Structures are given as C-alpha cells and as structure tokens.
Amino acid sequence: MNATTHIVNDLHSTRLIFHTKWEDFFKAYEGGRAKLADFLEKSSLQLGRNYNNTVIDAENGVVVNRGNMMNKTTLNATEGIKIERNDGSVQSPSWYKVFYVDIEGNLFAEDLSTKRLRILDAELGDAIIFDSIEGITINGEHGEVIRLNANEGIVIKVNGEKRFWIHNDGTLRARKLIIEPGIDGGLVLDEETDGYISDLMVNSLKAVEINGEKQDYVYIRNNFLKLNTGTSSQSDITKFMLHLNEENSNLDYSYPEMIWGQGNGIGGNTGYIRKTSDAFQFQYTNDLGNMRALEFNATQGSAVKMYAVGGEIRVESDTNVTIKCGSSSITLTPSGVKITGSVIDLN
User: Fold this and answer.
1) Nearest to 297 by CA among 322, 321, 274, 324
2) HSE-up (13 A, CA, CB side) for residue 6
3) Are 219 and 226 contacting, i.e. CB atoms less than 8 angstroms apart?
4) pLDDT confidence band for 189 (50 / 70 / 90)
5) CA 270, CA 261: separation in Å to the nearest integer?
6) How far apart are CA 20 and CA 33, in angstroms?
7) Which tens digit of pLDDT belongs to each residue from 58-99?
C-alpha cells in the first residue's frame, strides 16, 4: 500500500496524458452515476417523499397527482380506488370524485364507456350483457333470454323459441296475451274474464281458445266479422258474416250486409240482410237457387214487397188475419171471411 508508482518510468506515460485519462474517467463516471440516479428516480417508488407527483405513505396509501395538479388517483385500504378532478385551482383545490370503487366492490362512475359489459350471476354465468353490437341481453335460469337491440327490437325466447317480440318497425307478436285485472279498483272489468283493454286498434283478431283444434270462433279482419268453425286455417267454414259490401268497389256507397249460413257451395241455402242506399232487404235463396224476400223500398211503388220464386206465400194465424187499405179490408177468422169496401168487384 506504500509502494510508489512513477508515471514516467513505471507507466511509460507523462503527467499530461495521465491527467487527461483521469479526467476522462471521472467525467464518464459522473455521467454513468447521473444516468443511474435518473433511472432509479423514474423507475422506482421512493417511500414517504414526492417522486414524479407520486406519494406513498401509511395514511393515504398511494396518491398520484397529474403534473398540472388538476387530477389525482388514490389507492388505499380505507376508501378503495378513486379518481378525482380538481374543480378549483392549484393553490386552492376542490376535488370531485369522477370514479370510485369502495372496499366492498361497489363501483361509481360519472361516465362509463365500454364496448361490452358482463354482469355475472352467483355461478359466474352471463346474467346480463351490455354489448355495442348485440345490445342488452338478459339470461334466465331455465333457458330464458331477453334481448333488446336496434336490429331485432325486443325479443323474449325460451330455449331458443320466440315467445314475444317487438320488431323495430313497430310490429308486435306474442304467443299469448292475457290481460290481468287492475289493482287500483278504478277499472270497469268484464265479470267473466276480469280482462280490460282501454283502447285497441287491430287489423285482425281471432278469438281462438286452443290453437290447432277444431272449434267455433270469432274472426275479425279489415271490414268483416265472421263466425267460423275450424282450426283457424283458410279452409275453415264461415257460418255467419257481417261486413260492408263494397259494391262496384266504391267505398262511398258501401252498405252493411249480413250473410247467414255456410251455403251449399253454389250460392244456395243462404240468407241475407242488407241495408242499401234505397232499400232494407231480407232475402233467402234455397238449394234450387229460388229467391224468397221481404223488401222495404224507398220508392212509392212496391214500397213493401214480399215475393217467393218457385214457392207459395202463406200467412197464418189462429185468431185473425186482416189486410187493410184505406177503408177497405179483408179479415180472415177461423169462423169465416169478411170483406169490407164501398165497391166489391169479384171478377
């Protein structure tokens, strides 16, 4: 340790060369030390002191401040995780929580943006899904799925089978619609069904009890009401129809008409009641196509007309039958016939 090294004799150098090398070494050392200190300063946490606006201490946990002191994030075991916005100034801050997760796992956020959010059930299955493409999906415990999005509308499925759906064009379809009675006592309910609908506008309605089985039912569509027998198919039999007869396709002159009976397939064995613009008619056509009718007409001639084609007209009474015109009359009783008139002409 006490040996002496001679720069010229031992190192074969000069004092200038040695001084230059030593100065270069010292500069390189200082540069390396500065870079190492900078690296440690920026890549590690310094406990209990400011480091790049980050402080860790036993009271507040981890607190990270933005460089302009307008935002900060806090993580600790007392409050959880919170992100705050400074609504004041650097000198007089006023912190407002925009995001907060408490130690119980409750999440509070002023604004939340996500492409997909999943809410799991107790068994960690997808209970509710919010998706930017699929919309909102709610899954039940027994194959039930409720979906709401802009493409399908609102759909309820059970095991893949549609039960209720509202399309985005406003069309509503349902497997079954049951109207329950009101609970406020203010509605006038049907005594038989306890059902109530305040206002209803439909294009078609079938009062079918059991789908697919033969039955009598009411069918309402467009401008008619039908009493049908069948399975709610196009081949069902219509036994009564009330409609507006659009004669010559002119709606201004359409008139109500009732058609009674299913007929014989060729226009016979059918009854009609009509109210046209100039008459009120009761008509029946038998199997042979012969007409029997009673008409109340707007004209003076044939104001009331009764006729039968291919058949007789009979008026019966066990008391009397009177035909009267002005002061003239014919009265038929079980005991005889009485004819009254100023002139009686037997031709």
Assistant:
1) 274
2) 4
3) yes
4) low
5) 5
6) 20
7) 888 999 888 788 899 999 999 999 999 999 998 999 999 999
